[in-house]
Amino acid sequence: MMKTMPPIATSYWDIFCSVVDNYGDIGVTWRLARQLANEYQLPVRLWIDDLASFQRLCSQLDTTLSEQTIDNVLIGHWNPNFPANVHPGQVVIEAFACELPLSLRHSMQQMERPPVWLNLEYLTAESWIDGCHGLPSRQDQLTKFFFFPGFSVKSGGLLCENTLFATRQQWQQQSEQRQQFCRHRHLLPPQPNELFISLFSYENAALPALLKRWQSHPTPVRCLIPAGRTLNSLSSLLPADVCQAGGCWQQGALTVEVLPMTDQTAYDQLLWSCDFNIVRGEDSFVRAQWAGRPFLWHIYPQDDDAHHTKLDAFLDWLDAPPSMRAFHRHWNGIATRDAGWPGWATVDGWRDCVQTARARLLAMPDLATQLQRFVQEKR
Ligand code: TRH
After folding, report:
1. Is the CB of 57 inside a 6 Å radius of any atom of ligand 1?
2. pLDDT digits (tens, 9 = 90+) for 208-219
3. Which residues are CB-contacts of 370 (< 8 A; sequence separation ≥ 6)?
4. Nearest CA to ligand 1 atom 14
5. Alpha carbon of 123 to ligand 1 centroid (Å)
6. CA 109 to CA 122: how far, in whole Å?
7. How confident is the model at residue 85 (pLDDT cuts 50, 70, 90)?
8. Which of 45, 26, 154, 39 is nearest to 93 (CA)?
9. Which of 369, 376, 362 lies closest to 145, judged by CA?
């Protein structure tokens, strides 16, 4: 039996998240919920329909509980028996167009002063979102607003915690940072001039060729792979017992180590510890930009190839150098011509572009700040 949330909780910010696949839906909403709760001291309730996926990013989560508080966020298991007596708070955010429980919508309709209702959209650098960000849509007697994260000043911005850069700097300034990182994660000690690469991608036919190139790299290469979908494309190269957390494999200049999935803080630390990051989806893609190191984005593939347009929009916004553009297009299946690994000297040269873009982003208000202002305006 589901324990019910407090029936009258008029001040909550309710965030609803339905996990479609992977970790991006929960990754984004969990990050947002924690930022609103801890930096803005807002009472946040996060409703999640898939606690098992959530637990992969948050090991302290108890999947048997219908409600629990972690990091000042009240987490509710959103199952088909959503309690009819749960009343919406002052703000209701549906993430990525998930459908709110009918009973909650009904309660919203009955309210004299309904909550500010928002749909938090997927991230894209396409310019059409500038005209749609913040637009209202009438739904019965209620109004829902579209909130678009993005890269332009007219968009809702990107998630970025207030303390992120200070924390990263502190992390990177530790003496023998890489030795400590390896020791702490039970990884092999770093070698002199070893290039560290994190690899968090979807399945990709280009993966074995990439790893083979690194086997003959002039300096040692460490490829750190969080256990998951990446490994599905490496079964022709890596023995089966390597393809699990703790797996380790060496061939030529390349050492592969497979990592267990960690929480988001430790994932950030992985990005900060690497020279080059291969990231995917939405949230890890943003975190790689905050890390400020050269990166490769494996965009979430869509059936109608809409991701091709999204990728090009981002590369245009980034003002990506030709080699970065070519590698991205090849990796994401847009260009068939071989444009694989361009060599470390070239990839290292992307750093300026990545850091210039990051400075542009930092000049804009972050997503949580914009969301808060938006809600204040609409109330
Ligand atoms: O998991 P994803 O592929 O999620 C995707 C995208 O969000 C996509 O846009 C969406 O349509 C689809 O899901 C449904 O990639 P993403 O967005 O990078 O999310 C991964 C999350 O997992 C991110 O918050 C970082 C986190 N993470 C950890 O916390 N620990 C880890 O060890 C790793 C590897 C990731």
Report:
1. yes
2. 999 999 999 999
3. 156, 157
4. 21
5. 13
6. 26
7. confident
8. 45
9. 376
| Among the ranges given (73-82, 125-134, 332-341), the one the predictor scored with the smallest mean pLDDT | 332-341
- 311 near 324, Cβ under 8 Å? no
Q: Which residues are catalytically annotated?
A: 25, 282
Q: Which two tokens stand for residue 333?
A: 């299946």
Whether 355 lines ligand 1, by a CB cut-off of 6 Å, is no
CA distances from 217 to 24, 99, 123, 220, 358 (A): 33, 49, 35, 7, 29
Cross-strand bridge partners of residue 198: 224, 277
Q: Residue 8 C-alpha to ligand 1 middle, in angstroms?
A: 33
Residues present in the chain in total? 379
Which residues are within 8 A (CB) of 141 and not within 5 positions of it... i.e. 6 or more apart?
109
Degrees (nearest 5) of the Cα angle 182, 225, 220?
60
Which of ligand 1's atoms lies nearest the C-alpha of 57? Answer: 29
DSSP 272-318: HH-SEEEEETTHHHHHHHHHTS-EEEEPPP-TTSHHHHHHHHHHHHH
The model's pLDDT over 255-299, given as tens digits with 9 standing for 90+, comes to 999 999 999 999 999 999 999 999 999 999 999 999 999 999 999
337 has pLDDT over 90: no
- Contact 22 CB / ligand 1 (< 6 Å): yes
DSSP 134-191: T-EEEETTEEEEEE---SSTTS------TTHHHHHHHHHTSTTHHHHHHHHTTPPPPP
pLDDT value of position 8:
46
Whether residue 226 has its Cβ less than 6 Å from ligand 1? yes
